[in-house]
Q: What sequence folds into this?
C-alpha cells in the first residue's frame, strides 16, 4: 500500500491480488493509478475462472496412480531402448545372467520396465553433470539390475542378497 500526495491510501496490483487471494474479495476502493486498475482486474478475471474449475478428479486414486506410472518424462531414446537387452549385455558370467533374468521377469510382471528406463536416464544425467549420489540404501541394494544400471554400488550377488529383500 502507498499513500498519495493528498494522503489517500492506494493499492498496487500486487496489493489487490494479495487481498483477493487471502479474502476472496476485492475490498479496496481504488488502485494507485487508473492505468493499474484495468490490468489488475484483468489478472483477477484470468485467475478466478481457473480457481473455479478446480474440481476433484473423476478417477479413483488407484486409476490415477496407474495412469501416471505409465508416463515417464524422458528423452525418446530412453523410452524406446530395450532395457532388458541393455542389462543382459552388461552381464559377464552365467551367475549374473541367471540373476538378471530372474529379476527382469519380476520387474516385467510388475510393469516396471518404464521405471528401469527412467532410472537409466536419471543415472546418465547425474553422471553427465557430475552429480554425486549415495552408494546404496535400503532394500534397493538387493537388486542386481539396479546395480548394473548404476543406481547403487552394492553388488547383491557378491553379498548374497536375495531378490526377495527388494520386492517385499
A:
Amino acid at each position: 500500500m502507498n499513500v498519495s500526495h493528498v494522503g489517500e491510501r492506494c493499492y498496487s496490483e500486487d496489493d489487490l491480488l494479495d487481498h483477493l487471494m487471502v479474502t476472496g474479495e476485492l475490498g479496496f476502493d481504488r488502485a494507485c493509478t487508473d492505468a493499474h486498475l484495468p490490468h489488475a482486474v484483468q489478472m483477477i478475471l484470468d485467475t478466478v475462472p481457473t480457481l473455479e474449475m478446480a474440481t476433484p478428479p473423476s478417477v479413483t486414486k488407484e486409476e490415477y496412480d496407474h495412469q501416471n506410472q505409465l508416463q515417464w518424462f524422458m528423452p525418446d531414446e530412453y523410452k524406446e531402448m530395450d532395457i532388458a537387452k541393455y542389462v543382459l549385455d552388461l552381464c559377464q558370467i552365467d551367475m549374473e545372467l541367471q540373476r538378471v533374468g530372474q529379476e527382469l521377469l519380476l520387474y516385467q510382471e510388475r510393469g516396471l520396465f518404464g521405471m528401469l528406463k527412467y532410472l537409466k536416464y536419471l543415472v546418465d544425467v547425474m553422471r553427465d553433470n557430475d552429480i554425486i549420489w549415495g552408494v546404496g540404501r535400503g532394500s534397493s541394494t538387493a537388486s542386481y539390475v539396479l546395480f548394473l544400471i548404476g543406481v547403487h554400488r552394492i553388488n547383491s550377488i557378491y553379498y548374497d542378497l536375495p531378490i526377495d529383500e527388494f520386492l517385499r
